[in-house]
Model the fold of this input.
Amino acid sequence: MLRELVFNSDLMAGGWVVAAILGLSSVMWMLILDRYIFLTRSVKAHSESTLEHWRRQHSTKTQINRRLRSGLTHAYHEKLSSGIGTIQVITAILPLLGLLGTVSGMIKTFEVMTVFGTGNVRGMAEGISQALITTMAGLFTALSGMYFASNLQGRIEDETEKLTECLCLDHEQELRTRQSRRTKS
Done:
């Protein structure tokens, strides 16, 4: 049923280019869903483990703490951003595939016009249909990918900022605790 729906539809008038667009966009959507699932389920545990690492490793020296905080924040950001670059690359490739389909559809149209002249409207329509469908498919999938990649990037930046604030607050609290111990002694 699904096979008939996909392969016998007007969508497949775009030919192999639409199949490539569908395949690439499927990979893109799997990566997008993976990042959203990770951000909703695992980010808190990863944040807590980073904070625990900070508490075990921080020093009395400010320079060392600054570097440790920077390294932990960078590692945290990299963990959250895993796959975002691939999503962005796929998003950039999809409209180019649509353009490729447009060019091949127009070549098909001109071939029909060369052989039959303008009398074979059905043959010309097939090439124009391929051109329009591939353009639409490439642009639609790229635009949706751009939106979600941008949304994910914003969420990742927010989570990284929250972690950085927690590390700074934890450090300030530790300094206050040390000062109060010194004044009591």
Remarks:
- The chain has a mean pLDDT of 84.
